[in-house]
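REQUEST ID: PR-0412
SUBMITTED BY: lab tech R.K.
PRIORITY: routine
TASK: structure prediction, single protein chain
INPUT:
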Amino acid sequence: MTLSCRQKLVQLARKYDALIISDDVYDCLQWPTSSKSATTSLSKAILPRLVDVDRTLEPIPGPESFGNAMSNGSFSKIAGPGVRTGWAEATPKFVYGLSQCGSSRSGGAPSQLVATMMAELLRSGELERHIKEVLNPTYEKRYGIMMAAIRKYLVPLGVRAGEVTADGKEIFGGYFLWLELPSNVSAEAVADRAKVEENLIVAPGYIFEVENDPSIKFKNSLRLCFSWEGEQDLEDGVERLARVVAKVRDGVLSEVKGEGLGKNGVKGEMGEFR
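STATUS: complete
OUTPUT:
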């Protein structure tokens, strides 16, 4: 989202007294996707987050304001998948209100041991070093491998991959790639057949829709995760996915007899590219 769009969204939230909750931890995971942007410093977010915009956009919220945006972060995405500890960032009054909830005050819900470990990693600077020296270079390389495979195997089939820019710079970040299939190819059908025929799990777009909201549908969209699999498996997975897309596009019937599918055509847990 451009800075202008972020500002307008905050203004809209203020107008209707709504709360924006942003899962913006991926601002910590970002890298340049072209030599033109390679000189860009990525040690901090390229643009202010929505919670930053809400705190600085005139009229600036006073000390008694709850504000209209909060940042919802998780260390499981930047430290380790099993670290079920996160944080919330908002106005002082909003954060105080969260701290007074029963689950926080009783001490029964937070993981005190893990939180203590995370606090030490933050104080020592080790978490920042891990993100900068391990995570970002690793994800950047895996992203490049998967994008190259998509251009090689999927683009000739009419598949488009989403590109991301930030403030005019060619920047990408996070774990996932968003694919748009040709209009006559159902993402749900592709996901079902990929699981049965190729032992490949991808996420169909419909699971990211807002329930009972007909305004936006993702029937031709897939999401792939490049953070889970090793580099050696990424191209192979995309090639296998391409075989399925071609079959669904061309109306080739499956000869594999799998287990019965559920209401939405989904068998088992829909994870990511694995």
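NOTES: The longest helix spans residues 126-154.
REVIEWED BY: pending
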